[in-house]
Structure formats: C-alpha cells, structure tokens
Design brief:
By secondary structure, the protein is of the alpha/beta class. It is 36% helix and 21% strand. The two termini are 28 Å apart.
C-alpha cells in the first residue's frame, strides 16, 4: 500500500474483508514519507512500514501494488511497480502532468500488467443497465453535477497539487460520461473564485470555487458539467443523460429511469468502492481477464479533465486528441 491516508485506509479495510472465490488480500507492507501515518496503517494490518518504495516492493514481495497518493505525487511508485511487472491499482486522479500519465500508460501496455483505478462509479451495478438502455437509444445530451465541500487537506486548494475540483472530484462524472457518451472532442469552461472575503482568506489556495463547462462529444452529443466546493456538505453528485423520450440519472446509490409515462428507480446493491477492489483482486488472481477501470481509461479521463481545467484557466475552448496508447512514448 503506497500512501497511508484516508483513501489507503479504506482500500486496506475493504481488501482485508473480501470474501468469495478470490478470498481476502493481506496487506504486506505500507510505504509513506510520513512515518507516523505509515506506522499506524501498517500496525493495523500487522505488516512493516517503509519510507522508500523500492525497498518496500523488494522486501515485502507483494503480488500487487496499490498507489493511493495525492494527485501531485504520482510517478515514482507506478514506475517502480511496472519495472517489477507487478499488477497495479492507482487511485484517481492518476496524475496532473499529461505527459507523465501517457508515459505510464505506455509502459503499462508494454509490460502487459493488470491494472485497476479508483474510478469506482464504473463499477456501479446499475451502469450495465444504463448502457443497455442507451445502446439502442444513444444520448444526445448529458448534465453532470458535483456540488460539494472542500476536503480537509491542505494541498487540495492548490492548483499544482490537486489540479482543482474538476480534476480531483468532477473526474468521476467525466469518466462516467466517457463510458456512456464516448470520447469528447472539445471543451469550454469558466471558473469563479471568492475574493476579498474572510472565507477566501481562510480557504486559501488558487483553485476555482465554482466551474461551469460544456463538452462536445464525437458522437454528436453535448453535455454540461457544474462543480462547486463552496458548500459545507455534499449537495449533489450525479450524471443525467437525455435520449429520445428517455432520461436517466445515475448517482452512487442508484439509477432513475424516466420514460415519461413510467418512472423506475433501481437501487445499487453493492457498494462500488467494494466492487472496484474485488474486481481488481479477481483480475490479479486470474478469475477475470481485466477490470472495468484499467489505467488506459483513467489516462483518457485525466486528459479530458486537464483540458477542462486548462479551458477554465485560459478562457478559451480546448480541443482534445486521443492518440492510440500504443503510440505513446
């Protein structure tokens, strides 16, 4: 387990509690530059803690590696795992530098290793039903909303550390939109910040407090996305799609289907945060060929999020290219 923060703690707890054909997964080592944090997580799972990734991988001899680090800290752990041909799970967002992410994606493909990422919305058990409904009635419009609070970590408010809310939180909906609508071609976004107020001074950082964006997809569909971190609790996180006489709304707890004359609500049966870990372990142990959240897909979602953040920063539309991952260097 690379990283010992709250997300790493959650994954470690889920992995240790897994049941079924794949069994549980023992945490054999924790690596984090924060010695206290590493020792606490390692102690909870009865394993050693480390400061250096190479020493951790070579000493603990893991079957797979989880990288649960802040957005700005990606790279070293991924490269170390790839060099050792170890299956790799990377938390979202998978990085801030597009070149770094593309290089990691290329090396993963060359190494042929199993990957998973933290885009657990793809693992909602209602997503497959949504995909079936949209297969014969593709959406022409979508609307995504991530209306939330700021996470209580200092780096989150800094653009060069988190990438901003679009990259760090809205990314879940951008990824789901890519799954349901296909690849995006162009984005245009605008951001707004609180200024000259006590709140702004207390919050600090340089990220936008609110962002509104439009996205045009290669399929011809268009979408709007809105995000804000001004609230004191999560108000809404959802993706809506609109097709001919069909409206869908996906949240982390269910799927709403509106055909005009009838309305169905389908509840999620398994927590997708559990599913995403279970499917990765199944892929590592050979029970499934791959995961629903491979690094290649996460890299393309990162590209979309980075384009949206760039557009908000420069005030101009940004076009998106999608080169074949096999041609990346």
């Amino acid at each position: 387990m690379v990283g010992a923060g709250g997300v790493a703690q959650r994954h470690a707890a889920v992995l240790s509690a897994l049941e079924g054909p794949e069994g549980g997964a023992a945490i054999v080592g924790v690596v984090d530059p924060d010695q206290t944090a590493a020792q606490i997580l390692a102690s909870a799972h009865g394993c050693p803690d480390y400061r250096v990734i190479e020493q951790a991988l070579d000493s603990s001899e893991p079957d797979a590696v989880y990288v649960c680090v802040p957005p700005f800290a990606h790279g070293e752990a991924e490269y170390a795992a790839i060099e050792r041909a170890l299956p790799l799970f990377v938390e979202k967002p998978v990085g801030l530098d597009p070149t770094l992410v593309e290089n990691i994606a290329a090396r993963i493909q060359q190494a042929g290793i199993v990957t998973g990422t933290g885009y657990h919305w793809r693992c909602l058990d209602v997503v497959e039903q949504a995909q079936k409904l949209l297969a014969t009635n593709p959406p022409m419009m979508a609307a995504g909303h991530w209306l939330d609070k700021r996470p209580p970590v200092a780096w989150w408010g800094q653009r060069d550390k988190s990438g901003g809310q679009v990259v760090e939180q809205l990314t879940h909906l951008l990824d789901l939109a890519r799954l349901l609508l296909g690849e995006a071609e162009e984005v245009y976004a605008a951001g707004a910040r609180l200024t000259h107020s006590v709140s702004d001074i207390e919050r600090g950082g340089d990220i936008d407090d609110a962002t509104a964006a439009t996205v045009r997809f290669a399929s011809g569909a268009v979408a709007t996305f809105s995000a804000t971190s001004l609230l004191v609790s999560k108000h809404r996180s959802s993706l809506q799609t609109f097709s001919d006489a069909l409206a869908l709304e996906l949240t982390e707890t269910g799927l709403a289907i509106d055909r005009g004359r009838d309305h169905d609500d389908v509840t999620v049966l398994e927590d997708p945060r559990v599913t995403v870990d279970r499917e990765f372990i199944e892929a590592v142990t050979g029970l499934r060929a791959t995961t629903r959240t491979p690094y290649e897909e996460a890299a393309r979602t990162q590209q979309l999020g980075a384009a949206l953040a760039e557009s908000a920063l420069v005030g101009q539309p940004v076009r998106i290219g999608h080169p074949d991952p096999g041609t990346r260097t």
